[in-house]
Design brief:
This protein is an alpha/beta fold. The protein is built from 13 helices and 21 strands. The structure holds N-(aminocarbonyl)-beta-alanine and zinc ion (2 copies).
């Protein structure tokens, strides 16, 4: 199928210019002014519209079992929601359960491959440490998995500093990238039972038992461990202003460390957890303060932070009441599981489809970041960092034709009815947006057209990623 997208304004991570894009056999073939093409070419007039590479979300959790339930978007519904928001590539985390790492990855393929509706890849969690796990890490390259996540929190998942050091060294030797969940597990594991014993069961205690200083210190500690291992590091879901300071400190000293934040940490605070429906905002790490929101925005604007992911891990607010999804009733146990105990509220929230529209209006629209930074943060940088560039995150000839035609004028009152997540709420309910995806192409196939879903289950392809090479 051949397509010519004419007269649009291309926005890349570094440039803005007028050009046409010619697509054939799922690839961008030519980019130029006044392109002439033959017969049998679908013409799409993008006059007055912006053209950007499809979003790359480096942080999702689809169909993830936890808290006696499962995250409510699977690898089809979550991919579809991503596409509606202009994201055409997602990287999901494979949990480290019993069995070999390869068996865990095979299990995740069994869940994802037939459902996938956009292109996807996997990161591997390393939450158990032994000689067998270490011996198997290098062979992940054969699976196209080139990034590992380690945790400093969660009782049954965290590794010791020495173990993290060993994983980082091994990752470095095989050109893999280590990702870090930075929270101070030992203190959290003390504060939670203490809060419960004192009768503190409401959602705000989720945040109060996971203090920001723990996130700040573990970010620096993770950086220091990576420096000693001479390994690159990517800090996920950065949420506290002090973490940005730590990253800046390290980058100013030339260390190969990078950071991601997520939309929820740019807008919300512990006050949201104090609302009667505060469970909607429960995720780990938690929401902080307005000053933290502000410092994270500065980090995006001044280049200290490299990516905006989502940590999309949705649950129903009330999983006893079905919603209609593609014409069928569905209800999945969710936040109500922790009605009387914050430690039983499933951790996570919907965001994969919100990321681009929200960041456009409140980032680019409010002058906090430029349109080029928007593309860098949401597409090009994650593609580079995770070994997908220039196949993804690019509008250059040879790249996959993952393209978003963006209507910068379109006004949308956002919320659960517009977002396509399979859940019963949206954190940005009623927010007024200016700028929204109009058409979304996955490898040249039109999958979203003015709010109409044209994609199909199974059309997303697994992306075998390149070893880590590009520091941004
Ligand atoms: O609450 C969240 N974000 N759940 C996902 C797990 C994680 O640490 O990313
Ligand atoms: Zn995490
Ligand atoms: Zn996560």
């Amino acid at each position: 199928m051949k397509t010519l997208i004419k007269n649009g304004t291309l926005i890349t991570a570094s440039e803005t210019f007028q050009a046409d894009i010619f697509i054939d056999s799922e690839k961008i073939i030519q980019v130029g002014v006044g392109l002439k093409v033959g017969e049998d070419v679908e013409i799409v007039d993008a006059s007055g519209k912006l053209i950007m590479p499809g979003g790359v979300d480096p942080h999702t959790h689809f169909d993830l079992p936890m808290f006696n339930t499962v995250s409510s978007d699977d690898h089809y519904t979550g991919h579809k929601a991503a596409a509606f928001g202009g994201t055409t590539t997602v990287i999901d985390f494979v949990p480290h359960e019993a069995g070999s790492l390869k068996e865990n990855i095979d299990n995740w393929h069994a869940k994802a491959d037939e459902k996938a509706a956009v292109d996807f890849s996997f990161h591997m969690n390393i939450t158990h440490y032994n000689d067998q796990v270490l011996a198997e890490i290098p062979s992940l390259l054969n699976e196209g998995v080139t990034s590992l996540k380690v945790f400093m929190a969660y009782k049954h998942m965290k590794l010791s500093d020495g173990q993290i050091f060993q994983v980082m060294r091994l990752a470095r030797d095989y050109q893999m990238l280590t990702m870090l969940h930075a929270e101070m597990g030992d203190v959290i594991d003390f504060l939670i039972p203490e809060a419960l014993a004192a009768g503190h069961t409401s959602p705000e205690w989720h945040a109060l038992t996971r203090p920001a200083w723990g996130a700040v210190e573990t970010t620096l500690r993770g950086i220091a461990i990576a420096a000693q291992a001479e390994a690159p590091l990517y800090v996920v879901h950065m949420n506290a202003g002090g973490e940005v300071d730590m990253l800046a400190y390290a980058r100013q000293r030339g260390l190969p460390v990078m950071g991601e934040t997520c939309p929820q940490y740019l807008f919300f605070t512990i006050d949201n957890l104090r609302r009667p429906d505060g469970a909607k905002w429960i995720c780990s790490p938690p929401m902080r303060t307005a000053a933290d929101n502000q410092r994270l925005w500065e980090g995006l604007s001044d280049g200290t932070l490299q990516t905006v992911g989502t940590d999309h891990c949705p649950f129903f607010y009330d999983g006893t009441r079905p919603i209609l999804y593609e014409g069928k009733e569905i209800a999945i146990p969710g936040k109500e599981l922790g009605k009387s105990d914050f430690t039983k509220i499933p951790n996570g929230l919907p965001a994969v489809g919100d990321r681009l529209p929200i960041l456009w209006t409140y980032g680019v629209g409010k002058g906090r970041i430029t349109a080029n930074q928007f593309v860098a943060l949401t597409s090009t940088n994650p593609a580079k960092i995770f070994g997908l560039y220039p196949q993804k995150g690019s509008l250059m000839p040879g790249a996959d034709a993952d393209i978003v035609i963006w209507d910068a004028e379109r006004r949308v009152t956002y919320g659960v009815r517009v977002a396509q997540h399979r859940t019963d709420y949206n954190l940005f309910e009623g927010w007024e947006l200016v700028g929204f995806p109009e058409k979304v192409f996955l490898r040249g196939h039109l999958i979203v057209d003015r709010g109409k879903w044209l994609g199909k289950t199974g059309m997303g392809r697994f992306l075998r990623r390149q070893p880590f090479s590009e520091l941004v």
